[in-house]
Design goal:
single chain; about 190 residues; mainly alpha; 6 helices; globular
């Protein structure tokens, strides 16, 4: 259990803590959730850098690191649904979860063949776009919570972050299609 793997496990543990802070209303809960989410997101960046720099890349890390990312971002999307942040968030969450289930199934199929499918640049771009969008949503909602902003400005901010979420959903679909295409050999429909 090396340091990058410990950071991955820490991110998994932080996901439900983040969700609780996000959805349980108390003063500044968006800020508390935002800080935990940023800290968890940084563990993703740090564990990858350490693993590559010190050659600590393991099959456990290749499998669990993307899973930890999925847990963290899924917690955010589910929290946004519970908080009622617009009709689009339900559809975005469905897109994200569908892709994640497909790619996790693909990884499990590959693992049964003795192969590990590591994250590629498209999967990393998807994760970064989701994390950046989630951070902006929480920051915007925290600021909007202070009130006093004209309704048109508040609506504009919400439209803006919804557009960013949809862009991350499109990257989610694109990365999923690329993973499926590049690893189609692990999908045996004849068995």
């Amino acid at each position: 259990m090396n340091l990058p793997n410990k950071l991955t496990i820490l991110r998994i543990v932080m996901a439900p803590v983040f969700l609780a802070l996000l959805v349980i209303p108390f003063p500044h809960h968006y800020l508390a959730a935002l800080l935990v989410f940023i800290a968890a997101s940084l563990t993703d960046l740090i564990d990858g850098k350490i693993a590559r720099k010190y050659n600590l890349i393991t099959d456990f890390g290749k499998f669990m690191d993307p899973l930890a990312d999925k847990m963290l971002t899924t917690a955010a999307f589910l929290g946004f649904i519970q908080l009622g942040l617009g009709w689009g968030i339900t559809w975005i969450t469905m897109i994200v979860l569908t892709r994640e289930f497909l790619i996790t199934s693909l990884r499990l199929s590959a693992a049964s063949a003795g192969k590990v499918i590591a994250a590629n640049i498209w999967g990393k771009a998807k994760t970064v776009s989701q994390m950046a969008s989630i951070i902006l949503v929480m920051l915007a909602e925290y600021i909007l919570g202070f009130g006093g902003m004209p309704e048109t400005a508040a609506a504009g901010i919400r439209i803006g972050y919804t557009v960013l979420l949809w862009i991350s959903a499109l990257l989610t679909v694109l990365s999923g299609v690329i993973y499926m295409k590049d690893n189609a050999k692990f999908v045996d429909t004849k068995k």
